[in-house]
Amino acid sequence: MLRSRLMPVLLPALLIATPLLANGAAPALALPNAPAAGVCDVSQNAMSMDSEELAALADINAYRASYGESPLAPSQTLTRAAAWKSGSMAAGAPFGHDDSFRSWWQRLGDCGYPDDSYGAAENIAAGETTGGATVADWEKSPPHNENLLNPTYTAAGLKRVHSTNPGDPYGWYWTLDFGGDLDAPLGSQ
Fold first, then answer.
1. Angle at 83 between CA 40 and CA 48, to 5 degrees
2. Residue 149 near residue 72, CB atoms below 8 Å
3. Cα–Cα distance between 134 and 24 in angstroms, integer?
4. Measuring CA to CA, which of 15, 68, 103, 107 is 20 to 30 A from 36?
5. What's the whole-number average pLDDT of the chain?
6. Phi, psi of 124 (to 5 degrees)
7. What CA–CA distance (Å, rounded) separates 121 from 24?
8. 107, burial (CB in 10 Å: exposed 0-12, middle 13-18, buried 19+)
9. How many helices (H) and strands (E) does the chain have?
């Protein structure tokens, strides 16, 4: 595929990693006519992990284990935040961590993740169809790899969403949110 040949060239522009401790959160951007703070509308159907997401999480946990780190457990609130972000990018929002009306850290809170001192981080990617390829890209990128192997993180939300725009050059948008607190295991109500 042509896209897969171009991916290594485009990779630096399409992978972004952002770690942030709770006490270092940046202020949100306030834009006119922006959605209200607290927006985290995600359908219940979007909350279950598909086979590629499950494979990606298994790959991440095997990678962490090879470095002596504990596995990441799926968090309901981090999964909601990741689903919202991937859906937003797939719908045409700019590729980046912050939303047009809030910081990524505020999105985690709006989606229910507790504001705690354990910290959080986010990896995003676009263009890969499989979980294995996405994780491999993150492993090759120093800031993403640092997030993958950070021993502070014990919880994760991982979602991918495919663009409905047939002209979208990337297709799949991936978000992996990390947290130091497993607040609500995925599947709990």
1. 115
2. no
3. 28
4. 15
5. 78
6. -130, 155
7. 12
8. buried
9. 6, 5
Model pLDDT, residue 39: 82
More confident residue, 5 or 115: 115
Decide the pairing of beta strands 16-20 and 120-126.
Answer: antiparallel
Length of the chain: 189
Out of 19-23, 113-117, 148-152, pick the least confident.
Answer: 19-23
Q: Which of 105, 124, 125, 123 is nearest to 115 (CA)?
A: 105
| pLDDT exceeds cutoff 90 at 140 | yes
Q: Which tokens belong to 87?
A: 């859906």
Rg (CA), the chain: 15
In this predicted structure, what is the pLDDT of residue 14? 42
Q: Of residues 168 and 25, which shows the higher confidence score?
A: 168
CA proximity to 77, closest of 176, 186, 153: 186
Neighbour tally for 34: CB within 10 Å = 14
Q: Residue 153 in contact with residue 72, Cβ under 8 Å?
A: yes
Q: At what angle do helices 51-66 and 142-149 cross, to 10 degrees?
A: 80
Report long-range pairs for 186-189 (Cβ below 8 Å, ≥24 apart). 186/47, 186/49, 186/73, 186/74, 186/75, 186/76, 186/79, 186/157, 187/74, 187/76, 188/76
Reduced to 3 states, what is the DSSP secondary structure of residue 125? strand
